[in-house]
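Homework help board

Subject: predicted structure for assignment chain

Our instructor gave us this sequence and asked us to write out the predicted structure in token form, then describe one feature. I got the tokens but I'm not sure how to describe them. Can anyone check?
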Amino acid sequence: MNQYSRSYGAAQVRSPESVASYLRRVYLLFTGGVFFAIAGALGALYLGEPTVLHGRGGVALELPPLVAFGMQHWIMMLIMYIGAFFAASALRMRPGINVVALFGYTTITGIFLAPTLFYAQLMASQGATLDASPVRDAFLLTGLAFTGLSGYVLVSRKDFSFLGAALNMGFWVILGAMILGIFLHSAVFQLAIASVGVLLFSGYILYDTSRMLHDRSENDAVGAALRLFLNVVNLFLFLLRILSSSRER
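My token output:
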């Protein structure tokens, strides 16, 4: 991060045409990644014969097979998700295979998130969430936020490199708070974390979009698309956490 901070904000050496071409490639890859993530999630949620799982108190619940597998073998799914991310990161500079790795990772992301989406919508169907359709509304809000924030940077061409240190610090603070939240079991604390998370990854969208414009050494389109995808996924999850919070009765 320190090496990046020294170069970011230096004088531009790329022509406007090369910057525009680079941005088109990044956003094309990013859009493709979102498409594959949605396809992975929809496949996990709707394909296959339902599997019956018995929860606490002997309550039977019908689940899509991939969702049931994810709930029963969440450690395996987590390892697969992390492995796919590191593979996409490691291969991002290798032409051809980097795009395959990126789309493979985003597809696995959709499958990995499917149990969370299923549970949120299940709770919503029982009237137990703040929002009647938290998955849909979190998706729409994420799309609006990303379009607005990224579009603002592209139109204004403002340099948001000054956010780098604060965002790095905020990431580690919120990660520590999330770990602490596992032991506190406080709904108010979880909502506070989610609210800060929304602000944090909104800042990352500003920062990474600005980086694509102003970092003279930036030519890693797959890496940039991967960063934007991670920002959007995390923003979506924090918004989903807020919208699917328990409704007070």
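Reply (TA_rk): Your tokens look well-formed. For the description, you could write something like this. The longest helix spans residues 16-46. That's the kind of observation they're looking for.
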